[in-house]
Write a structure and sequence with these properties.
The protein folds into 3 domains: about 220 residues, FAD/NAD(P)-binding domain, CATH 3.50.50; about 90 residues, D-Amino Acid Oxidase, Chain A, domain 2, CATH 3.30.9.100; about 70 residues, no CATH class. Helices cover about 35% and strands about 25% of the residues. A hairpin with a 5-residue loop joins β9 and β10. α1 runs parallel beside α9 and α2 packs parallel to α9. The longest helix has 24 residues. It is globular and about 80 Å long. The chain starts with a strand and ends with a helix. The structure holds flavin-adenine dinucleotide.
């Protein structure tokens, strides 16, 4: 069988794979990406967060991305069924960092990253899927299927698994752990957003609190189309019979915030369904490999954290891989997994508070203290490793305290008015 030898094999050419490959390649190691699909390929997840720009910058991707003219994103607008609005502006946040990012069609964005990493000298082998890995210490031999239907082996000194929902290493080595979050379902498509310009801030991402436990996204991108989807538990969808298109059209028509804008819009593809996406695994590393991106822990789409966690984990992991290949000691638990979990756990607080409805008490209350809003804004910008921010460091207590304060204020106002 055909066998080749490289320093680092990266599985998956999504954002986590290409960011890791670029950073390791720049350090002078030989890197190759194997990717199961042919690019461009569809993947959901159009809304990025400002923190991801730091990882894209270190990977050297920003100049090429800027040339693509993707829709710029400066904040996020939350709205509820009483039409109360919480509009976050990333320029008004606690953490000093990026104040903008992009809303992108992921097929185009991921393809741009893959093309750029190839220009940097990293081969990307498409239609090449990993089917087996054998480790011997930190060295490995990976078997892949090739586009011509054959197989070959790749020997590597280290593997970065950025295989997303493929979860190659966790599945192969029995490392998967069920998520603590309940299973949810999403139904989504891209629509031709012809009425966009009738609205104030037509390009702002919209997160609509449709009813308890059910929310709808609208993410406008630069070609005049908008990603639109609904997330809930599976039971909610049972009230909407018919095809996926009929279901999504009926849900759009039932929402006072998006009905006018999206009712009757052309759908660019038959709405797709994804469900039970939350996943985790025992460890994010092992002898000779590290897991990055969605393979590690993916919580929920509500705060658009997926790509940011994907590229930030890759940025941190890639630098640790370089350190290890340089012959230095790496404490993977402390320097990687514990660090990643700080960000994951901060996001988890807000995801749980969104679904139990308590976060909405903060968002849709005009008495929310602006100083606290700025700190929450930094979380929503992806700055979930800034331990000077109490809404990161002690997220649960801060959120609980703020909700108690808002509740108390409401009672005082009600008492004074009685
Ligand atoms: C409903 C929903 C909405 C979302 N919305 C957002 C959003 O607005 N913003 C956001 O940031 N995130 C969002 N996400 C999350 C986002 O989709 C992911 O977090 C993101 O794509 C992760 O990037 P990644 O590089 O880890 O994986 P991916 O982008 O999935 O890339 C992994 C790659 O690995 C390849 N692969 C898989 N198996 C193999 C194999 N055996 N061999 C070789 N290659 C393989 C795949 O083909 C794929 O191209 C959403 C998720 C869901 C479920």
């Amino acid at each position: 069988m055909n066998t080749e030898q490289i320093d680092v094999l990266v599985i998956g050419a999504g954002p986590s794979g290409t960011v890791a490959a670029s950073i390791i390649n720049k350090a002078g190691y030989t890197v190759k990406i194997v990717e199961k699909e042919q690019f461009p390929r569809f993947v959901i997840g159009e809304s990025l967060l400002p923190r991801c720009m730091e990882a894209l910058d270190e990977a050297g991707f920003l100049p090429a991305l800027k040339e693509k003219g993707f829709q710029e994103k400066f904040g996020a607008k939350f709205i509820n069924s009483q039409k109360e609005v919480m509009d976050f502006n990333f320029s008004d946040q606690y953490t000093k960092g990026w104040t903008w990012t992009w809303q992108v069609k992921r097929a185009d964005f991921d393809h741009a990253l893959a093309q750029e990493v190839e220009k940097m000298g990293v081969p990307v082998e498409y239609k090449t899927a990993v089917t087996n890995i054998e480790f011997s210490g930190t060295d490995s031999v990976t078997t892949v299927t090739t586009p011509d239907g054959g197989t070959k082996q790749i020997k590597a000194r280290f593997i970065v698994d950025g295989s997303g929902y493929g979860r190659v290493i966790p599945r192969m080595f029995n490392m998967e752990r069920p998520s603590e979050l309940p299973s949810r379902k999403a139904l989504f498509t891209h629509v031709r957003d012809t009425r966009r310009m009738n609205y104030v801030e037509p390009n702002r991402i919209l997160i609509v609190d449709h009813q308890p436990g059910v929310w709808i996204w609208g993410i406008p991108v630069s070609d005049g189309t908008t990603s639109c989807g609904v997330v809930s538990d599976a039971k909610f969808f049972e009230d909407f019979p018919g095809t996926p298109e009929e279901q999504l059209r009926a849900i759009i028509a039932s929402d006072i915030n998006i009905k006018e804008r999206f009712e009757g819009c052309e759908f660019l593809f038959e709405p797709r369904v994804l469900q039970s996406w939350s996943a985790s695994c025992d460890k994010f590393y092992g002898d000779g490999f590290v897991l990055t991106g969605n393979v590690t822990e993916f919580l929920d789409p509500v705060f658009s954290s997926g790509v940011t966690l994907a590229v930030t984990s890759s940025q941190i992991a890639a630098n640790l891989v370089i350190k290890q290949l340089n012959g230095e000691e790496v404490d993977w638990q402390k320097e990687y997994m514990d660090r990643m979990m700080i960000g994951v756990n901060a996001f988890r607080t807000y995801v749980l508070a969104w679904y139990d409805g308590s976060l909405q008490k903060i968002f849709f209350n005009e008495d929310r203290p602006q100083d606290n809003v700025r700190k929450i804004c930094s979380v929503l910008a992806g700055y979930v490793w800034d331990d000077t921010n109490p809404f990161v460091r002690d997220s649960q207590n801060c959120v609980n305290r703020l909700i108690r304060m808002i509740d108390l204020n409401k009672k005082i106002i009600a008492f004074n008015n009685s």
